Amino acid sequence: MSIDFNNGIWLNEPQNWKADESSLTMTTDAKTDFWRETYYGFTRDSGHFLGFAASDSFTATIRIGGEFRTLYDQAGLMVRIDDTKWVKTGVEFTDGELFLSTVITDGKSDWSVSQPFRELEDFYIRVTVNNGAMRIQASRDGKFWPLLRLAPFPIAAQYQVGPTACTPERSGLSVNFSEFSIGPAITTDLHDLS
Q1: Which residue(s) pair with 36 in the sheet?
Q2: pLDDT tier for residue 104 given thresholds of 50, 70 and 90
Q3: Half-sphere exposure in the Cβ direction for 90 (13 Å, CA)
Q4: How many domains is the chain partitioned into structurally?
């Protein structure tokens, strides 16, 4: 069952956005980002994030669409405990190409990229949090879900989860989010890609 995007709570609300019960379109403000310390030495917590409460165990899925053209243009799904413990995962434009990107932050950020498929202007991200582990999957069609990342993530009584978008080098990226749901954690085998 899809979530009404009007029921979320903004962190760094963008100047331009519109939402209804089935979709959210946001346009990024200038020089927005989420990052903590690693390599660059700075901390940024200025990206756009629309959060929804999730329990200590859940699976969240969202569809993302946009035209990502400038270095570090990015959009996806964020899971957040606080400003030092969060994950953002989705599409990011880097080195002249689109990649699936994940930043996991627990005090400091890490960053990984991959290309299990190249069609990244309309795709799905699915995140499962359960028992201190986070499973991140991506899909072109919402049916076949290759693994993007498996990582530890701090256990919390509650998380905030929802769409995020950032443009560290510019403003004006328009992103559409749809088919957003939060439900019980999937418990399929790690190699079950359904």
Answers
A1: 43
A2: very high
A3: 30
A4: 1
pLDDT band at 1 (very low <50, low <70, confident <90, very high): low
DSSP string, 114-175: E-S-S--SEEEEEEEEETTEEEEEEESSSS---EEEEEE----S-EEEEEEEE-TT-S--EE
Rounded to whole angstroms, the Cα distance separating 64 from 173 reads 13
CATH number for the domain that contains residue 14 = 2.60.120.200
The answer for residues whose C-beta is within 8 angstroms of residue 45's C-beta and 6 or more apart is 12, 34, 83
How far lies 158's CA from each of 5, 14, 191, in Å?
A: 19, 25, 27
pLDDT tier, 2 (very low <50, low <70, confident <90, very high otherwise): confident
- Residue 174's DSSP bridge partners are 27
Burial of 53 (0-12, 13-18, 19+ CB in 10 A): middle
State which residues form the domain around 16: 5-183
- In one-letter notation, the amino acid at residue 171 is S
What are phi and psi for residue 6, nearest 5 degrees? -70, -10
Q: Is the pLDDT of residue 84 over 90?
A: yes
Spatial distance between the Cα atoms of 181 and 173, rounded to a whole number of angstroms: 23
Amino acid at the residue 75? A
The verdict on residue 164 lying in a domain is yes
